[in-house]
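Practice problem: predict the structure.
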Amino acid sequence: MSGTAGVLMVNGRELSVRALEENRRPTADTCLKSAPYWNTDAQGRVCLGSMRVPEEVSAGSVSVWEDAYFASEFTHPSGAVHLTTHPGGFLGLWSKLAGRDRRFPVQFLADANQTLQEFVQKRGEP
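Answer:
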């Protein structure tokens, strides 16, 4: 799917992800959206499950982390969290998108109520 982008944050061996409404480089005050992905909770934390976690954590390893994330087995929605504004909820969104090769409908991205700076500053907090 194209049309939207995301922000991945790695802290040690933990991965968090947020969505961007526009596919452009964010600034510190860019408002983030919840990433409506399987294995991802409302805070953006990813349940790594079957993901092969890369050993390296550096700016040069971003593409390795992206590849590992999208190659993992997405097994479960993260409970009753608000990851999308789609009228059918999380499962309704992905059921509608299954098998389609088109732009992601950004109008269904839910606000994360967080800027990029706040997302990064929360790193390491419980």
